[in-house]
Amino acid sequence: MKVVTTIAELKQFVQQTKKEQKTIGLVPTMGYLHDGHLTLARTAKADNDVVIMSIFVNPTQFGPNEDFESYPRDLPRDTELAQSAGVDVIFAPSVEEMYPADGGIKLLVGRQATILCGASRPGHFDGVVQVVAKLFHLAEPMRAYFGQKDAQQVAIIETLVRDFNFPLEIKTIAIVREEDGLAKSSRNVYLSEQERAEAPAIFAALNIAKAHFLQTQNAQEAIALADKHITTNTAGRIDYLQLLSYPDLAAITAQTNKFLLAVAVYIGKTRLIDNLIFQIEGE
């Protein structure tokens, strides 16, 4: 495995790989790798001849009061973990390398960025699509890999690829869960014993809502049942709980055939997110 830090080095590698008619899988990350990232890398390795993983803490997706400077960075650790998962090349550029100039042209996500997690993070998803579009052009992957845990981000990226005809496939990898259904997250360690015992009710509530909706097609009743399950079985506070079309993240209609059921709940001081993506005929 090699680590490259410049666009020129990456492009040279990509050109040679294309010349050899090998397929490329891209795993975009901000580093500080965990099991979710490694699952993406292993899946990419199984699907492609070559895996490129980007490790870049992207400043354009951080707000003025967010933790860009303190965001954890450990490239030697990440390099070791990435190699163990079959990554062939790590692209770890500096901010100056990725953004040497600003000509003023921006990608604006629009409505999809104003709801769910985006409601409290204006500009965040504009920064996400900016860096992802650059990485797609630089790595020229056949496939790019993202985790379903960040469903809003994946939906926005899928829309970008669809609407602007990017020549690649987006592969979404299912949420990795604990045995009791709680979505794995680095934030789970902040839960007290009591809070950790309550947290699986979030996933249970999503399943209750999904089952009711598939049976009745009544979104309002489904959301009400999930809300009741969370408020009855936890001391948590619901930030949002919505059923939307996927990947457009719009209000559902009789014509909608793919759905996102998404939730964010504060259990104590810890904000947990989870979701289900499904179709009328099942997931």
UniProtKB/TrEMBL annotation:
Domain of life: Bacteria
Keyword Nucleotide-binding attached: yes
Pathway involvement of the protein, from the record: Cofactor biosynthesis; (R)-pantothenate biosynthesis; (R)-pantothenate from (R)-pantoate and beta-alanine: step 1/1
Pfam family, one: Pantoate_ligase
Positions annotated to bind beta-alanine: 61
Localization terms from the record: Cytoplasm
Protein keywords: ATP-binding, Cytoplasm, Ligase, Nucleotide-binding, Pantothenate biosynthesis
Residues binding (R)-pantoate: 61, 153
Broadest EC class assigned to this enzyme: ligase
Keyword Cytoplasm in annotation: yes
Active site residues according to the UniProt entry: 37 (proton donor)
Recorded catalytic activity of this chain's protein: (R)-pantoate + beta-alanine + ATP = (R)-pantothenate + AMP + diphosphate + H(+)
Binding-site residues for ATP, renumbered to this chain: 30-37, 147-150, 176, 184-187
Enzyme Commission (EC) number: 6.3.2.1
First-listed, main subcellular location of the protein, grouped into a coarse class: cytoplasm
GO molecular function: ligase activity
Cited function: Catalyzes the condensation of pantoate with beta-alanine in an ATP-dependent reaction via a pantoyl-adenylate intermediate.
Note: The reaction proceeds by a bi uni uni bi ping pong mechanism.
Assembly: Homodimer.
The family this protein is said to belong to: Belongs to the pantothenate synthetase family.
Protein's recorded name: Pantothenate synthetase
Origin species: Lysinibacillus louembei
Gene expressing this chain: panC
